[in-house]
Amino acid sequence: MDSGIGLLAAAAAVRRLRPDADLVLSSDPDGMPWGPRTSEDVTAHALDVARAAAAHRPDALIVACNTASVHALPALRAALEPTLPVIGTVPAIKPSVAGGGPVAIWATPATTGSPYQRGLIREFAGSVDVTEVPCPGLADAVQNADETAIDLAIAAAAARTPRGVRAVVLGCTHYELVAERIRAAVRQPGLPPVALHGSAGAVAAQALRRIGAEPAPSAEPSAGLAVILSGRPADLPVAALAYAEGRLLGAVSPAR
Q: Model-level pTM?
């Protein structure tokens, strides 16, 4: 679940680990963006989206949204667990600082500077130099597959990223869909390539662990893909097919 198509990264990661897994993708295009909403409002929307997914009786629910994880994770777990394990998304700050710094965290303006993100930096970054980089408009541009807006938003964020950073944390699930474009934008002549750290792979692996399932990348592909948009059964949004992750999932026949 996510507010929008940022969930594609985690869903594709699950698909790669378990091609035989049926997937339910539940998002809230009618309620986007969630970032400017109050915490209570985000929680209400997240619960609606989660319950729409839960009606399909999945084995686990991945909250593939940083905003929902920040504001709504306790409420989602209180409402759905233990019957339905709920796996949240945390920015990959801990692995990003393993090789030293400096590090930049790209995130939405609502998350940048938030007590939640600052707490993660204090907990995991230690003495590593960390710069928080707000990325206004980038999630919306990715959601709409607006190529020009994506390029402009990435360029603006890259300009705010200090020279010499060794790693960039992608603190919004939407950003993982344009990771290679971000990598190219932050590359600095004369310096080693910047490492990017997203959450999709770790979240997918954690979901399998929570339900006691092992990765099986060679398993027979499944035909199960259900898409729910603001509570309505739907097809995969056209914008999703602009990304490799969406095309991977779109190759599966819909099953409602």
A: 0.91
